[in-house]
Every structure is written in C-alpha cells, then in structure tokens.
Specification:
Length: 433
C-alpha cells in the first residue's frame, strides 16, 4: 500500500479500538439522578438500571437533567465500577487460537451528573479503563433546556446539548452509544463493522439544538467539529496507533427526527438519522467523506411494571469516499441491530440480541446473536440503601455465525475460517453509587 493512500485507510483502520467501543456501547447508571429527583432508578430505567430509558427517563434527559424534588443539598456526583470475568479465544505464539480467561476491572468512572442550575444540567463521565489502564473524559453531555408555550394549550420543550460524541445526546435506546449491549468488554470481540462516524467519539465537540413538541415530535439539528490533537491528548483520548493524528472535521451536520408516543402502560418511537462530514488529513490533502443514514424504532410494554417487555432496533448505513492522492475509493458499511428483553419486577432480566454487519468491499463483516441474563436486586423504592446504591450482576454470551476481518495493512491475510473462534462468555458485576 502506498504511503499516499494512508489517510482514508488510516482513518478507517486506526480507529478500530475506538469504533468498536462506540459500537459496543458503554455502561451508564448514575444514582445521583435518583437522589436529585427523589425517584427510584426504576422510574427512569428499564430493569432498574441504565441506560435503557423509560418515557419518564427520556423526558428527564431532554429536560436537561434538572428535574428535582425541590429539596436542597443534592450533590451531582456518582461513581461506577464494572468488574468482569471473560472467557474467549486468542492467538498463541504459533498463531493458533487457544482459550483464554481474564478477570479484573473492566472500567471505573466518576460522574458529574445532575442539576447545575434551574435550566442547566450535566452528564459528564471520567473513566479509567481496566484493560488499557488509561484515564480520560468518556461521555459528556452538557444541556440547557426550557419549556415554551406554542398555542392551543400545547408546549414545546427546547434545549441545547454540548457533547463530545454523536448520539450520546440521543434520548432513545437505539443508536450506537445507548443500544444493546449496555455493557461490553474491550477484552473480547464485539459485534459490528467500524464506521468513520464512530471514530469521532471524544475527539469532537457538537452543539445540538433540539425540541420535543407536544411530547410527541422530536427534532434535532447539530454541528460537529474536531478538537485539536493537543486538547484530545489533554482530555485523555491520546493519539491513534502508530502516532497517527485524528483528522480535522469542520461543521459536520447531524439531523435527528423521531416520533414518540407514551401510553403509560406502553410506549413506542420511530426515528430517522442523517450525519455527513469530511475528515481531512492534517498533513496532506487526503480526506474521507462519510454519509450516514439510519432508521430506528423501539417498543416498550410497561404494564404495571411487574412484567416489562422491550424491543429495540436500528439500521445504519454509512457511505464513504476516501480520496488519497486525488484517487477516490468508495465503500458502504451497514450495521443492523435488534434486541428484545424481558424483565420481571425490574429485577430479573433476559435479553436476546441479533446483529448483522457488512461492508461493500467484503473486508469486514459479522453476524450472530448476543444473549444476556441479569439480576438487579436494588434500584427500587424499597431497596436497600436506595437511592445511594445499585447493582447488576449478569452473564453475557456473544455467538458469531459469520466473521470476516482484514488486517490494518489491508492485506487479505486474516480471514477467519471459524467464526466460532470469536465467541465469548462474560460474567460481570456492575455497581454504581
């Protein structure tokens, strides 16, 4: 591969660890919100644990994280620890896949999460990775929100989000940052094909204006710009592998439209996503354009909260045009995710997920299932130490039916003949306080 063709492929390949984390989601749950509102965790979250939001939780987020019980003295701080045991296969010295087991901390975080003023609230997470042993700003979403009358007795909730990751500000449970699996390990292979937009995580800043009209129509428009490499380093993102610098991104438009309906005993939403941008090499004229289009939907049966069923799905297509030394190379990747869950009394949960990811150039792709069972003993109104402590213990199994991947030099050398070698089992304990 010539040196001049580096940017596009560098942007795609060098971002692999970041993008995989983006695709696999991050664990989030912050009891400081429960202390602020006087509500139990189950009021905002399916299964009494984040991040899957109920309609009440969606409106709390869009309202700028400022809703409260009116009592003073609430400190917007929380912490979270995820420990895990992971069993998977990895190559030995001879290149043969052998079974390996790892046990330890997956991640630990502190949050500035809650009301900062009457109209301003925050969800800012600083995370230490138990795998990479790095610390930095993880997810960040700072909001201003207020409510306006629009006539006819109707209201519109309007707000602005300043955030560091496209879709971290999204209120639904379908886009990459907040979709199933809600906790994942960097030690194992996770589903999905990397996207250029996924590589933007924590390396950009977005300003997104949004409105929820009459509790039904959600509209959002934002612009994303990259932050300087020096600032990325100060915030803990570091540089890409091989010392590569993340490219520059200017005024990349992000558009989100959705319709949601809260029927109290059930709720649903459908939505569209569009996100375009051009990632430019800081040292040459090379660039990569990306155009994302997505469609998503979600359904929740809430009933009396004894039996809860959810179904979440998304399809996101990314078209890229990589220009290296004046030569364009096109590719399209598609990520499809579908998950259905059942929770009994917000305590015992089971989730089945399906994933399918493809790339037009046939250099990456996977398909399979993800299974999870979990137990969440706390987080309800009568729980021990409520609303200070919460815990989820679970088992997660990823089963690949198809897996193809090429190495970072784009050599056709790492096509795996046995997708089952990428399967993994994970036991996790996830606590927040």
């Amino acid at each position: 591969m010539s040196k001049s063709s580096s940017l596009a492929l560098k942007a795609l390949w060098a971002c692999v660890p970041v993008a995989m984390a983006f695709l696999s989601s991050q664990a989030q749950a912050v009891p400081s919100f429960a202390r602020q509102t006087g509500q139990d965790c189950a009021a905002c979250h399916i299964g009494a644990y984040g991040p899957q939001l109920t309609p009440f939780g969606i409106k709390f987020k869009l309202g700028g994280y400022v809703d409260s019980d009116g009592k003073a003295g609430k400190i917007p701080l929380s912490a979270m620890v995820v420990a895990e045991y992971a069993r998977f296969k990895e190559p030995d010295a001879n290149g043969n896949n052998v079974t390996s087991s790892k046990m330890g901390l997956a991640e630990s975080s502190v949050f500035l999460a809650g009301k900062l003023s009457d109209n301003i609230g925050s969800f800012v997470q600083v995370t230490n990775s138990g795998v990479d042993h790095t610390t930095g700003i993880d997810q960040a979403d700072l909001r201003y929100a207020t409510t306006l009358g629009i006539g006819g007795g109707k209201e519109a909730l309007v707000g602005v989000s300043v955030n560091n990751n496209p879709s971290v500000q999204d209120p639904f449970n379908t886009l990459p940052v907040w979709s199933f699996p809600y906790t994942a390990s960097d030690r194992v292979t996770n589903p999905g094909v990397d996207t250029v937009s996924g590589s933007l995580e924590q390396r950009v800043i977005g300003v997104n204006a949004y409105s929820l009209i009459d509790d039904n129509i959600y509209a959002e428009l934002g612009l994303y710009n990259s932050i300087s490499p020096a600032m990325q380093s100060r915030l803990g993102s570091g540089r890409y592998p091989d010392g590569a610098e993340f490219g520059g991104l200017s005024n990349a438009p992000y558009v989100r439209l959705a319709y949601m309906k809260d029927l109290h005993t059930q709720a649903w939403n459908v939505g569209l996503l569009a996100f375009n941008g051009k990632l430019e090499d800081r040292a040459s004229a090379d660039s990569t354009k990306f155009k994302d289009f997505g469609i998503d939907g979600s359904y929740q049966f809430l009933g009396t909260r004894e039996h809860i069923v959810t179904v979440n799905g998304s399809y996101i297509r990314e078209r890229t045009t990589a220009n290296a030394s004046g030569v364009d190379t096109n590719n399209t990747v598609k990520n499809t995710k579908l998950a259905a869950s059942y929770h009994f009394q917000n305590t015992y949960g089971a989730t089945l997920g399906y994933f399918k990811a493809t790339s037009e150039d046939q250099h990456a792709g996977n398909r399979g299932f993800l299974y999870q069972v979990d137990w969440t003993p706390w987080g309800k109104e009568s729980s021990w130490a409520a609303p200070w402590a919460n815990l989820r213990v679970g088992m997660q199994y990823i089963q690949f039916k198809r897996y193809v991947s090429y190495d970072a030099d784009n050599d056709i050398t790492t096509v795996l003949g046995k997708p089952g070698d990428m399967n993994s089992l994970r036991l996790f304990a996830w606590t927040s306080f």
